[in-house]
Every structure is written in structure tokens, then in C-alpha cells.
Amino acid sequence: MNVEVKTEDTTAALPAGVFAETVLSVTHYTDRLFRFSMTRPASFRFRSGEFAMIGLMVDGKPLYRAYSVASPAWAEELEFFSIKVPDGPLTQHLQKIQPGDTVLMRKKPTGTLVLDALTPGKRLYMFSTGTGIAPFASLIREPETYEKFEQVILTHTCREVAELQYGFDLVNEIRNDEILSEIVGDKLIHYASVTREPFERQGRITDLMSSGRLFEELGVPLLDPETDRAMICGSTEMLKDTKALLEAAGLTEGANNKPSEFVIERAFVG
Ligand code: A2P
After folding, report:
1. Cβ < 6 A, ligand 1 pocket
2. Among 25, 98, 261, 269, which residue's CB has the most CB atoms within a 10 Å radius?
3. Do 177 and 84 fall into the same domain?
């Protein structure tokens, strides 16, 4: 089924508290993943790492899913990184969007993967799998991240090598940006691994942590609640297993109203 998105109709039917924005660009990475950008309403404020409810009119009704904003809080455009699920209620339609189409966004962002939810530390780990990299795409382009931490380690694990490409593109974009590259310097480390095909680094992040390989390769000490902070975003199982390793190392979970040593958020699908 093809979704008909007409700007006039959509806007006319808009409930209060919803923005109708214009798609600016779409990049397809694999048959499962794509990235898109859209206009940012002047009044939409969010903190880097938060998510918003994104939607389309489907069969005359608005349908929303939670999406981390992948662009940083200072950016003029909004960017998102999405999975494509063949029969996913929203993503079967969203994967077909083209520049000029309208995407809906609820006005209130939220989320726990924000710098304010962490107590001061030296090193910030961002553990992600699959589309769980999206909130970190925002945070690695946020100058405040580098004001607060001496070292920022972004881990990204996917089933296949092609699924890592968005992460590589992001890091290249930072390196090629005059202002950001100056701010980021050599503080950012991108640590990518793959689990279901050959690659220079194979294995789940939990296994790379347990075996000590992660810390050896980075040349850093084992996790320490004195110095290390972490954010986790991935599937429910990945969150559970990674959280257990952080807790075993003595780190405690925080929240917006109770900053601590790590925070977690599900990577949303559907
Ligand atoms: P694996 O291929 O061994 O399942 P998914 O697409 O299923 O969310 O998986 C994305 C990545 O997360 C895959 O590389 C997958 O590895 C890995 N993964 C899945 N479950 C866990 C877990 N419990 N802990 C750590 N990594 C996981």
C-alpha cells in the first residue's frame, strides 16, 4: 500500500501539539536502514540525545513512533536514523519518503540519554547496537559533550558491515567540519564491531567488554565508577546485558532527576 501524504490535507487534520515538517534529504544505507533529514520548527527545542514522536498520516490517521533525534541541539535541520521493517506499521511507509514530503512530529521531546543525567567524569562511553547509535549521533556532535569529558568512546555493533556505515559517515562528517573537528579534536573514539560476518573486529560489545579486548584495544583502564560514565542504547536484551556489566564494575544507574554514572534507553523499532 502506498501512503498518500498531502501537505494541505495533513496540516488541516493536525491535532494541537503536532508539527508538520518537510523532508529535505533521504539516504538509504541497506535494505534495513536509512537516514533522513527534515526542517526544524523554530519553536522546537530539545536536548542532544532526546527522542521525539515522529509520524505520518496513514489511512487518514496520524501514526507515531519514538525516534531519537540524531542531529545535535544546535543544528538547523532535524535528522533521524531509522530501521525499515517490511510490515512495520510506520516504517513500511516512512521508508518511502522523498524530499518535499511531510513528516509529523509531536511537539514535546523527552529521554534519559542526556548529559545532565550523568555526574561529572573523565571518560564517556556510548554503547550502541543497530539504530541505537541515533542518540549518540546527536551527542557526538554536541560541543558540551567535549566540555564535560576528556574522552568520548562510541561503540557501535551491528550484524553486518554495511550497517556500520552511518557511524563511519558521522565520524567523517565531524572530521571534515571546520568548527566541530576543532572542538572534538582527538577526544572521540569510534569503536565498531560486527557479529554475523567477517570484519576486522568481531563480537558483541558485551563479549568485547567481558574479555577485556575493548579496554586493551583502547589502551584504557577497566571500568571505574570514579572516572567512567556510560550511556546505552540498543535492544532490550542488549540493554540488560550491558547494564549488568556496568553494575558489576560498580557503576550505578541515573536519571534526569537523579544524575549518576550511567543511563539507558531502548532503541525504538516498528
Ligand atoms: P548478534 O548478531 O550476536 O545477535 P539486533 O539487530 O538483533 O538488535 O542486533 C544488533 C546487534 O546487537 C547485533 O550485532 C547483535 O549480535 C547484538 N546483540 C543482540 N543481542 C545482544 C545482547 N544481549 N548483548 C549484546 N549485543 C547484542
Report:
1. 129-130, 157-159, 195-196, 204-206, 234-235, 237-238, 241
2. 261
3. no
